[in-house]
Fold this protein.
Amino acid sequence: MSEGGDTLDYQSLRMTEGPRKRGSGGGHQSESADSLMGDGENAGSTDVALKKQIGLVSACGIIVGNIIGSGIFVSPKGVLENASSVGVAIIVWVTTGVITAIGALCYAELGVTIPKSGGDYSYVKDIFGGLAGFLRLWIAVLVIYPTNQAVIALTFANYVLQPIFPSCLPPDRGLRLLAAICLLLLTWVNCHSVRWAMCVQDVFTAGKLLALGLIIIMGVVQICKGHYYWLEPAHAFETFRDYDVGLIALSFLQGSFAYGGWNFLNYVTEELVDPFRNLPRAIFISIPLVTFVYVSANMAYVTAMSPQELLASNAVAVTFGEKLLGVMSWIMPISVALSTFGGVNGSLFTSSRLFFAGAREGHLPRLLAMIHVKRCTPIPALLFTVSLVWPVIYLLFWAFLLIFSLYSEPVVCGIGLAIMMTGVPVYFLGVYWENKPKYFDIAIGKMTHLCQKLCSVVYPAMEESPGPQEKDDGE
């Protein structure tokens, strides 16, 4: 591959040399590619590949940074509201942390058995087939990531502007503009360099842990002063509403959602240094750390607020800071803003690898499976943006929550299922149907090559990762 921009050999990216061949349709695309690009050597195609740049610290930063968002600062009251008492709420936080650790360890085993980026999409596709994998990808592209990133970015903008507008709500235009700037800035960082993206992730993860550490320290000080009424066993289980099995199940669901993001490291397995060791190590470090922080922070909150005050607050950490920090209470909204900024970065980084993996398997446009020729970042995807007892326990836990969700919110669950099933006709038309008309493949090929030139991207070289047994034998 030549260094000059004019002599860059894009022929190394011919459609038939992509990660997945599509029968006769792929042949039509390669013909269109040849006619567009001309003849040339496939020079340098093996030189461009995803780089293993994510070490153990950054791996922990991805897990912790994606789990800890704005929820623990803003609305931990969801668990308390449904648990009906402080004591049960704390038990829920501990239990969901343990269940999350079990699921994460099962996921780590999947990650070292199927060492491919893409996370659950790659595992579902390899185990259950193309349609199941495509539906998982479809719902992520259509609903999960666009809404998730938009909500986190708007939350970031809201808390940045809150100190500027202390007595009123920030203007909607200002919120949307700042949220858009946040998304554009972090997309540029992720496109420019994996190291830059990991640096942002590590710094902001450390920042949110420091903010939560401040909350925990203030809680310890409160306990030392004797303000632990709601932590005493005699009062911790005082109910402010009658216990209800359905509501307690919802509290477990709320707690489990708070731990969401524990699986994101598996989305970038191919970029992880020594994944067979660092993937389980990162999980062993991160999940207990997050569980400790969540439980301690919730205990700290009730040292300064009664359950009724906590439930009445729209931003628990902000109310907590106003009670204990005085003139320094501005630290809390800024901490929430920093936490959400890091959350947006982590979501962009991992979701782009999901789309990259989907395109590599032919389930999304092939352009999304290409990476920049020098920076080795998936720019198109960013722009598109153990023992069997443990899996059984984890599946039973989520089956229990699913049944109660279907019972209590059948309409919402039905709408979610209907949205997912819209991917079935798209799969059969776009993926399963290989012998498409020649003119369609030629048109797609031309569009792909145009975007390829604009983004300066090529298919990454693929190398077979050794299994754990082979790695041990080599050592």
